[in-house]
Amino acid sequence: MRVTELEGDTLDLWVAKAWMARSTYATVDASYVRDYDFHPSTDWAQGGPILEREHLTLEAGNHYGGGNTYKAWLRNPDGFFHAYGPTLLIAAMRAYVCSIFGEEVEDSAIKPSAEGKTDHWVDGGYDQKIDDFLRAK
Questions:
Q1: Which domain of life is it from (predicted)?
Q2: Residue 123 belongs to a domain with what CATH number?
């Protein structure tokens, strides 16, 4: 799946995966994606610290003639990464995910479990590591 297509809980899940990939010790307040409250693509209190830590640059404007679209970019030792989105936070979180995983990520979905909660599925299989991380306090 193209990172430019990520949105909602799927984007937030990939942000959590990106945070885990870059942190030896995850310091994010871990009440995440599932029925938790980790929504950095819509919540400035959660997305803002990621923007600051990663030194993301934001730009509002009319990109590609698509009306109100936003651009975010960052440069790190791995290169220069940018992404667009309908909001500044969505653009920023897409750029952040792209900086860690590249322009394509595994198809993933967040599916409801029998108990009515949401389980994490990545590439057709349950991802226990992500689930454990998201449950950690």
A1: Bacteria
A2: 3.30.2120.10
